[in-house]
Amino acid sequence: MMRYVLSTALFIAILPTAGQAAVKTETVKYKDGDVELQGHLAWDDSIKGKRPGVLVVHEWWGLNDYAKQRAEQLAEMGYVAFALDMYGKDKVTEHPRQAGEWAGMIRKNVKAWRKRAELGLEILRKNKHVDPNKLAAIGYCFGGATVMQLAYNGNDLKGVVSFHGSLPVAGEDDAKRIKSKILVCHGAQDGFIPEERIQKFRKTLDDADADWQMIYYAGARHSFTNPDADKRGIDGLRYDKDADQRSWQHMQMFFDEIFGES
C-alpha cells in the first residue's frame, strides 16, 4: 500500500540519435457516434515485440502539439503512446472561453465522458505493438481529471498519472471500482483547486483503500508542466521548469514500478 503525500520544494527530453530511437507517428481516425475524432499515435519502430502502452489526455485546449509531443517523448522512452482526442477533429483553441465551453460539455455527462476516453484506450489496447496487460494513462489539467474518470470506471490500467488535474471526487461506488495505482502531481500553489476538494479526493481514495500517492511541488501553480502556460494571459497559470522536470521523473519512477521495469 502506497498512500503518502510528499511535500517537495527531468522533464528529460530524450532525443533520438542515429542507430537509436526511430520514433514513428500516425494519425488515427475514429468515431464516437457521429463525432469524428482524430488521435496521435507514437512508437519506436526500432523496438521489437510488444511493450507497455500509455494513453495521453490533453488539456482543455484540445489535442494540440503539446499533447502530441508528450506522446512522442513517451515513444522515445520505449512505450507506445496514444494521444487521444476528447473534443473532435480539429477542435483545438487558444481561447479560454472556448476551451471552457468544450471541457464543460464533456464534463456535464460523466457516462459519455468516460465512454469517449475509453474509446481512445481501446485503440491503444488493440495496437499490435502494445502489451494489453501493461497499460497506463496520463493527463494534464482536464486530461488529469479524465484519467481519474478512467480509474473510477474500473478500467484495467496498471496506473494513472494526473498532472495539475482538477481532482474530481469519486462517488462511493466509483471508488470501489478502482483497479489502478494513482500518482497525482500537484502544484502547491495551484489556486484553481480548492483545498476542500483535495481533502475530499484523498479521503474518498483512503476509504476505498486505493493505492495512491500525491506529490506537491513547492511554488508551482496550475499548468506547471506546459512551457506555453505563461502565454495564456490567465492569472494562476505558470510554467515551472523544476516542477516539470521533477514530475516527469516521478512519472518514470512510477512506470518502473507498475510495469516492473528499470
Describe the secondary-structure layout.
Elements: E1 4-8, E2 23-32, E3 35-44, E4 51-57, H1 65-76, E5 80-83, H2 96-107, H3 110-126, E6 130-140, H4 142-152, E7 159-163, H5 172-176, E8 181-187, H6 195-207, E9 212-217, H7 241-259
Parallel strand pairs: 1-9, 4-5, 4-6, 6-7, 7-8, 8-9
Antiparallel strand pairs: 2-3, 3-5
Helix pairs in contact: 3-4
Question: What does this entry show, briefly?
Answer:
34% of the residues lie in helices and 25% in strands. The chain is α/β, with parallel strands linked by helices and 262 residues long. Helix 3 packs across helix 4.
Description:
This protein has a nine-stranded mixed sheet, sandwiched between helices. Helix 5 (172-176) links the parallel strand 7 (159-163) and strand 8. It has a single domain (4-9, 22-245), classed as Rossmann fold, CATH 3.40.50. The chain is globular, with a radius of gyration of 17 Å. The longest helix is centred in the last third of the chain and has 19 residues, at 241-259. The model is unreliable at 1-19 (pLDDT under 50). Helix 3 crosses helix 4 (142-152). The protein has seven helices and nine strands, in the order ββββαβααβαβαβαβα. Helix content is 34%, strand content 25%. The protein has 262 residues and is an alpha/beta fold. It starts with a strand and ends with a helix.
Name the beta content range. Answer: 15-25%
The CATH architecture assignment turns out to be 3-Layer(aba) Sandwich
* Rg (C-alpha, Å): 17 Å
Shape: globular
Which strand order does the major sheet show? Answer: 1-9-8-7-6-4-5-3-2
- How many domains make up the 3D coordinates? 1
The helix-and-strand class reads alpha/beta
Order of helices and strands: EEEEHEHHEHEHEHEH
**Overall CATH class:** Alpha Beta
CATH fourth-tier homologous superfamily: Alpha/Beta hydrolase fold, catalytic domain
Mean of pLDDT: 92
Biggest sheet statistics: 9 strands, mixed
Helix content: 25-40%
Number of helices: 7
- Intertermini distance: 20 Å
Number of β-strand runs = 9
| CATH-derived topology | Rossmann fold
